[in-house]
Automatic annotation (TrEMBL), chain A:
One Pfam family named in its UniProt record: BPD_transp_1
Organism: Oceanomicrobium pacificus
UniProt main location, coarse: membrane
Protein's name in the database: ABC transporter permease subunit
InterPro entries assigned: MetI-like, MetI-like_sf
Residues covered by the ABC transmembrane type-1 domain: 87-280
From TrEMBL, chain B:
Domain of life of the organism encoding this protein: Bacteria
GO-annotated biological processes: transmembrane transport
Taxon lineage: Bacteria, Pseudomonadati, Pseudomonadota, Alphaproteobacteria, Rhodobacterales
TM region(s), chain numbering: 34-52, 87-109, 121-144, 150-169, 202-226, 246-268
CDD domains xref list: TM_PBP2
Protein name, as recorded: ABC transporter permease subunit
Length: 291, 281
């Protein structure tokens, strides 16, 4: 119980605070429209009616949390999964691109990191560019990649996955290089005194000690990968996916739709990061990193 | 003829790689750490130019670097207007407001351990979310001009900066705090003389993360609606017109702006936290 009080209670308080502020902000932002409507209809709104109205408009400036919750419930549980209005359908499209991009990005990232650690020329030539590329707004390239790949006949899943791959690639390279270099000189010398081959040094020393670093960057990478998939859905003109829901919502002023897509994207991101974190915990425990 | 161009480009790349392999055998000689990556970059550009010209790749797929340089020169005026709109007005304003607000919030929260324990996990959670999705909403609220882009940047920068600053403020070790107490230092004296300097590396880490986020936020927000200037607007419209040389030119500008921004913050960090082990050589 005391554990609950010291950990969950502060978090719950903060979340409750945010939700409370949200309701207040909804009143403040939606009130002008409600008042405007009331004066046009020639009705006087009492304070409680005004509040009730601001929390139940069709196209509010800021929908109240319960409106978003209802919309999410209606578009996930009450629609068929194959329906184009189902958030599960759109979420799956985004998720598949995210996962494909994440797997390839992480794979290439690990390979490049191994190359960088074992080849000094590669380290000196490529690593500065990898670090510099962290400061570049890579997402800006997304529309171009989509259009160019469309021109060569690739559309749908692959272009989005490529953007996701691109975004998840860099954190993995940087984290993995750090990880593979983390065993100190003593340990490497020790492997040498055992006359271990480079492959043995890699599998028995470098790779295991890089695992905690790998998971830290995988968590960043999977979140970045989702952002990549969402942004990748924008330039194709709102066909399908959570990004498309965002864009379509902003075209038609459907704020509740935007927010529900946004919240589902957030939940998806939280799940993905949570799953990676769970795997991390299990692996670290098996490998003896856990304290 | 085309085969010759490809061959020449490949040969140049191989030669540059061979030189790099030789140069990197003695990495500690002066200048090597700069020459090697620069040579690698030049080799990539030559290879790109050679392959595009040799294989006659259409300019709508991938323009050669020379065409991008030409576009950079010809359209310098437009690019500058875009740069001012997106970077100076959108990204920098948002960056200053977002990081400033997060910093002040962190100092306020710092007085309540209860709020801290609640806000750190929530902040970490929010920092991992696809906040860029807020862009269409903020564009709706603040209009098409740079104000909405600045707002997106504010939202994107706030939580990473907040989490880093709160963590940083916890860095001063208990011994030093006790020492301040024995000096009879007030809360504010402890804050300014001990805890803020100790938080320096964390604060700058947050500031550095936010430089990239700021540019990304400002550019992507323009995909959801903008006046007829701005780097995000330029990229999305020129992609539609298939003038990819202009798109690449804009990307070059944004890359340069991003690197310079990051570089400036790194320099400030070096000047402000020179005492920290990570800055020592």
């Amino acid at each position: 119980m005391s554990r609950f009080l010291s950990h969950a209670l502060p978090i719950l308080t903060v979340v409750a605070l945010i939700v409370g502020l949200w309701y207040l902000a909804a009143i403040a932002l939606n009130a002008p429209w409600a008042r405007d409507q009331a004066t046009r209809a020639g009705v006087d709104l009492s304070a409680s009616e005004l509040v009730a109205d601001t929390w139940s408009q069709d196209k509010p400036k800021l929908p109240a949390p319960h409106q978003i919750a209802t919309e999410i419930w209606e578009t996930t549980a009450e629609k068929k999964i194959t329906s184009k209005r189902s958030l599960v359908y759109h979420g799956w499209i985004t998720l598949s691109a995210t996962l494909l991009g994440f797997v390839f990005g992480a794979g290439f990232g690990i390979l490049l990191a191994i190359g960088i650690v074992y080849n000094r020329a590669m380290d000196m030539s490529v690593m500065p560019w990898v670090i510099a590329s962290q400061a570049i707004p890579i997402l800006a390239i997304a529309p171009m990649i989509i259009v160019v790949l469309n021109a060569v006949g690739l559309s749908g899943l692959i272009p989005k996955a490529i953007i996701s791959m691109y975004l998840s690639f860099f954190p993995v390279v940087v984290g993995m290089v750090k990880g593979l270099r983390s065993p100190d000189a003593m340990l490497i010398d020790q492997m040498r005194t055992y006359s271990a081959s480079p492959a043995q040094t890699f599998w028995k020393l470098r790779f295991p000690s890089s695992v905690p670093y790998l998971f830290t960057s995988l968590k960043v990478a999977v979140a970045a990968s989702l952002v990549g998939a969402i942004v990748g859905e924008l330039p194709t003109g709102a066909v399908a996916g959570l990004g498309a829901r965002l864009l379509a919502g902003s075209y038609y002023g459907q704020t509740i739709q935007i927010w529900s897509a946004l919240i589902s994207a957030a939940a998806l991101a939280a799940c993905l990061v949570g799953i990676v974190g769970l795997v991390e915990r299990v692996v670290n425990k098996r490998m003896g990193f856990a304290r | 003829m085309n085969g010759l161009i490809i061959l020449a480009a490949l040969l140049f790349w191989l030669a540059a790689w061979a030189v790099n392999v030789r140069l990197s055998k003695n990495p500690d000689k002066p200048g090597r750490r700069i020459i090697v990556p620069v040579l690698f970059g030049i080799a990539i550009i030559v290879l790109w130019e050679g392959l595009v010209r040799g294989l006659e790749v259409k300019a709508v797929l991938l323009p050669p670097p020379s065409a991008i340089v030409v576009a950079l020169g010809d359209k310098a005026g437009t690019l500058w207007i875009d740069f001012v709109q997106t970077f100076i007005k959108g990204a920098l304003t948002g960056y200053a407001i977002g990081c400033g607000a997060a910093f002040l919030t962190a100092i306020l929260i710092d007085r309540s351990p209860f709020l801290q324990r609640g806000l750190l996990p929530v902040g970490n959670f929010v920092a991992a979310l696809p906040i860029i999705g807020m862009a269409p909403i903020l564009v709706m609220w603040f209009g098409f001009d740079w104000q909405s882009k600045a707002a997106v940047v504010v939202v994107m920068c706030f939580f990473p900066m907040l989490v880093n600053t709160v963590q940083g403020l916890q860095q001063a070790d208990p011994m030093s705090r006790d020492l301040m107490r024995t000096y009879g230092a007030s809360y504010w004296q402890t804050l300014f003389k001990l805890r803020l300097p100790a938080a320096g590396p964390f604060i700058f880490n947050g500031l550095k993360i936010c430089t990239t986020l700021a540019l990304i936020g400002a550019i992507v927000a323009e995909f959801f609606g903008s006046p007829i200037k701005g780097m995000g607007f330029r990229i999305s419209t020129e992609v539609g017109r298939l003038s990819l040389d202009m798109v690449w030119a804009t990307i070059v500008v944004s890359a340069l702006a991003g690197t310079a921004f990051y570089g400036v913050v790194t320099l400030l960090e070096k000047a402000a936290t020179f005492w920290h082990p990570s800055q020592r050589r």
